[in-house]
Amino acid sequence: MAVAHTNDQTFASDIQSGLTLVDFWAPWCGPCRMIAPVLEELDQELGGAASIAKLNVDENPETAQAFKVMSIPTLILFKDGKPVDGAVGVQSKSALQEMINKHK
């Protein structure tokens, strides 16, 4: 599996089933670039227990506004289409694993 990219048009279908951790980010954001390799590594280790998607807030403002994303990176964990957890700022891989494991 690889980290998927989502957008305003596909977002609802991308998060509709199972656990999906969405990274709200932008290319110019330093902390967003710092967390990207952590998300890639986590995606490899999850082995299908959850999926990870990235949403560029500059290109997809509707979804970012709908979830009141004010700072990036913002990570929101969705379960079957509904937000169940989240964090703002760079997170450790273990903190993200813990968040996902809580909602399995």
Please tell me how large the radius of gyration is. 12 Å
Number of domains: 1
DSSP strand tally: 5
The strand order across the widest sheet is 1-3-2-4-5
Rough outline: globular
How does the helix and strand content classify structurally? alpha/beta
Regarding quaternary structure, how should these chains be classified? Answer: single chain
Topology:
Elements: E1 4-6, H1 11-14, E2 19-25, H2 30-46, E3 51-56, H3 61-66, E4 74-79, E5 82-88, H4 93-102
Parallel strand pairs: 1-3, 2-3
Antiparallel strand pairs: 2-4, 4-5
Q: What is the structure about, briefly put?
A:
With 104 residues, this protein is α/β, with parallel strands linked by helices.
Structure, described:
This protein is an alpha/beta fold. The protein has a single domain, classed as Glutaredoxin (3-Layer(aba) Sandwich). 36% of the residues lie in helices and 28% in strands. It contains 4 helices and 5 strands; from the N terminus they run βαβαβαββα. A 5-stranded mixed β-sheet has the order 1-3-2-4-5. The longest helix has 17 residues. The protein is globular and about 30 Å long. The two termini are 18 Å apart.
What are the defining features of this structure?
104 residues; Glutaredoxin; five-stranded mixed sheet; 4 helices
